[in-house]
Predict the structure.
Amino acid sequence: MRNKLLSVMKPLIKSLFVFGLIAALAFGHVDSALAASGGRIGGGSFRAPSRGYSTPRTYAPGGGGGYYAPYPGGGFGFPFLFPFFGIGGGFGGLFTILIFFAIANFMLQAFRRASSGGSVEELEYDSNPTVSVTRVQVGLLAEARGLQAELNRIAELADTNSPEGRVQVLQEASLALLRHPEYWVYAGGNTQQSRLTGAEAEFNRLSLAERSKFSEETLSNVNNQLKAATPKAELPAGDGSGNGDLAVKDPGEYIVATLIAATLGKLQIPAINSTDDLRQALRQFGSIPSDKLLAIEVLWTPQAEGDTLSSDDVLAEYADLKLV
C-alpha cells in the first residue's frame, strides 16, 4: 500500500518541484533586474513658440524718415514711392503704376530677408514645428566610478528651470561620458521626429521606459526640485548575512547612462556601431543650442554607493544596446 501511494505521489511531487524551480528562477531574475538604484536630471517644456504681431513699418527708399503700411494698410492703401508728379496723365494710370511699385517693393524686401538669413521668428515660425526626440545610451564598466560622482555633482548643482541651465547639464553630462572612452562597452541611440503636439508623448515614453528599470530614484533634480533618498544602513562585513562581503567584493559590473533631448528642428545622430559613432553622437548632444532645446533627461544607474548592475541586468533590461 505504501509503495503504491509513493508511486502515485512521485509524479505529482516531481511536477511541483519543477514548477517551484521555474518560479524561483523567474522571480529571482526579476529581483536581480530591478536591483539597481537610479539618478535623474530633467527639465523643460513643450510650449509652442509664439510671438506678438504688429503691423510692420517699411521705410521708403531715399531717406526722409517716412514709411508706409503694406496694402491694404493705413492712408491711401499704397506707398508713395516717388513725388506725386504727372497726375494730369490720369488717376487710373498712376494707380496702376503705384500698385506695380508696391508689389515690386514687397518682393524686394522678401528677397532681402531671405538672402540675409532673416530671424528665427520670420523664417522658421510655426505654431506646430518639427521636433526631434533623441536618445543616446552608454554602458560602461563599473571601474568608471568617477562618472557616478560627476553625475551626482551635476544633479546637485544644476539649474534645470532655465534654457541655459539645461544646456549646461547636457554639455557637462556629454563631457563626463566623453572623458571615459576606455570604459565604453555598450552603446545605442535613436531619433524620432514628430510635430510639437506629439513630441511630448514620445519624450515621456522614453523617459518612463528608462525610469521603470530602477528599483528607486535615489537622487533627482527635475525642474529644480532636488530630492535624495535616505541612504540605507549597510550591514557590516561579517554579520553573518554575507551582504557586507558582497558589497566589498562585488560592487557591480556596469554603469548605464542615458541622455534624452527634445529639440526644435531635425537632429539626426549617426547609427551607433563603434566608439567613433558614439563620440560623434555625444558631441552633437553637447553642442545643442539653448534656443533649440525644449527638454532634457539625464538618467544613470546604479546611483547609490555599493549598488550593483550585473551583466545579467544589462542583458535583461538593455537588450537593444550593441557592443562598441
